């Protein structure tokens, strides 16, 4: 168990500022998922925490001690990479014990740690195999096992499941979640996959071009996105966003949507705005207060759910429904209650 705090962390590569004034406080045992598009600075941030990359400005605190200048092996942090980074000429046992041998641990103690970790990850039968004799999922288990044997205060995961196929990815996701419950060690997990973020995290950090857009529980982020970037990033398919010119707004809160006037009590709009509605909040009937006619372009059948790609007044509109629907269906509706508003700078407007 540990507490981690990053204070005003900044990092540039040449003139390219990759992390800008990043602040976060992580409590004992929390599982934090850092999510954002490729290139937004996720790996750089993890590498600075682990000590593989230097910090330009700011402080990294681990259990209230500044660790900026501590070498990686002294930080009590273990990192698991997307590429697994196993030694190809060593078998699983040797890969898992290598770091401990370097630390000159007693042989029996090493043996116990490797056996315990391999039991936790159910790779006891694989200890004598070389990495090339393992599947992707097994390799990733070994890499996680190697991290566990170090008994770290903090685990860092950098897109550990990205190289696995979809079925294995969801299986390993559950494994990692169980592992966290069992070890109750802090974990910081980096991914570009919002499903991993939503399912694994106690708290999610949304990162965009080196800047934290939002920090909160999965429910907070899903229900109360700060801005359009967050709203579109979390949720699948992504939230529908309609631009509404101020000419379509009367008396500050009555909006002409799809040729009907809809009043939104408690709001006072005085500029162009954006209206957001999640695909899963749209019904394939006319039971809700905001109604529209759609033209269906494509139906993706996911079994229980269907994703409908349609257009309304020429704009793409995504709908997720479990209702039976055919390509000639045209009536949809959604409730005022489920609508989000954003200002012309794409920040959330609350009533
Ligand atoms: N060693 C480096 N030298 C120069 N630029 C780098 C280096 N490492 C990362 N970058 C740049 O920093 C940005 C963030 O990279 P990274 O942290 O790897 O993003 P992510 O992990 O979110 O995909 C990218 O623009 C990348 O090209
Ligand atoms: Mg990365």
Bound molecules: adenosine-5'-diphosphate, magnesium ion
The CATH topology of the largest domain comes to: Rossmann fold
Rounded radius of gyration (Å):
24 Å
CATH architecture of the largest domain: 3-Layer(aba) Sandwich
Q: In total, how many domains does the architecture comprise?
A: 2
Largest sheet: 6 strands, mixed
Secondary structure: number of strands: 23
Characterize the overall form: elongated
Derived from helix and strand composition plus strand pairing, the structural class reads alpha+beta
- At the fourth level of CATH, the homologous superfamily of the largest domain is P-loop containing nucleotide triphosphate hydrolases
Q: What is the CATH first-level class name of the largest domain?
A: Alpha Beta
Widest sheet, order of strands? 6-7-8-3-9-10
How far the N terminus sits from the C terminus, by CA atoms, comes to 40 Å
Extract low-pLDDT stretches. none
* Percentage of residues in helical conformation: 10-25%
* Total helical segments: 8
| Mean of residue pLDDT values | 94
| Beta strand % | 25-35%
């Amino acid at each position: 168990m540990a507490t981690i705090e990053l204070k005003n962390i900044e990092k540039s590569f040449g003139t390219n500022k990759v992390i800008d004034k990043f602040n976060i406080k992580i409590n004992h045992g929390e599982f934090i998922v850092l999510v954002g598009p490729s290139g937004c600075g996720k790996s750089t941030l993890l590498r600075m925490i682990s000590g593989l990359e230097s910090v330009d400005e700011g402080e990294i605190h681990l259990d209230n001690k500044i660790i900026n200048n501590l070498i990686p092996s002294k930080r009590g942090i273990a990192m698991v990479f997307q590429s697994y980074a196993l030694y190809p000429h060593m078998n699983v046992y040797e890969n898992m014990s290598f770091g401990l041998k370097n630390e000159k641990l007693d042989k029996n103690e090493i043996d116990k740690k490797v056996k315990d970790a391999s039991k936790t990850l159910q790779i006891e039968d694989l200890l004598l195999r070389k990495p090339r004799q393992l599947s992707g999922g097994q390799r990733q288990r070994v890499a996680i096992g190697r991290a566990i044997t170090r008994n770290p205060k903090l685990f860092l995961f950098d897109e550990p499941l990205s190289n696995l196929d979809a079925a294995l990815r969801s299986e390993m996701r559950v494994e990692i979640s169980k592992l966290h419950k069992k070890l109750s060690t802090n974990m910081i997990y980096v991914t570009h996959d919002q499903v991993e973020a939503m399912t694994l995290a106690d708290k999610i950090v949304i990162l965009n071009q080196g800047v934290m857009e939002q920090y909160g529980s999965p429910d907070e982020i899903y229900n109360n996105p700060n801005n359009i970037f967050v709203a579109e990033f979390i949720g699948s398919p992504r939230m529908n966003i309609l631009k509404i010119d101020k000419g379509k707004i009367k008396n500050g809160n009555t909006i002409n949507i799809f040729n009907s006037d809809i009043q939104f009590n408690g709001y006072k709009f005085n500029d162009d705005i954006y209206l957001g509605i999640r695909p899963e909040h749209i019904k394939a009937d006319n039971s809700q207060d905001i109604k529209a006619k759609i033209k269906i372009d494509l139906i993706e059948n996911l079994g229980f759910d269907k994703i409908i790609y349609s257009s309304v007044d020429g704009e793409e509109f995504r709908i997720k429904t479990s209702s039976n629907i055919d390509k000639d269906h045209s009536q949809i509706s959604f409730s005022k209650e489920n609508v989000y508003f954003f200002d012309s700078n794409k920040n959330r407007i609350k009533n």
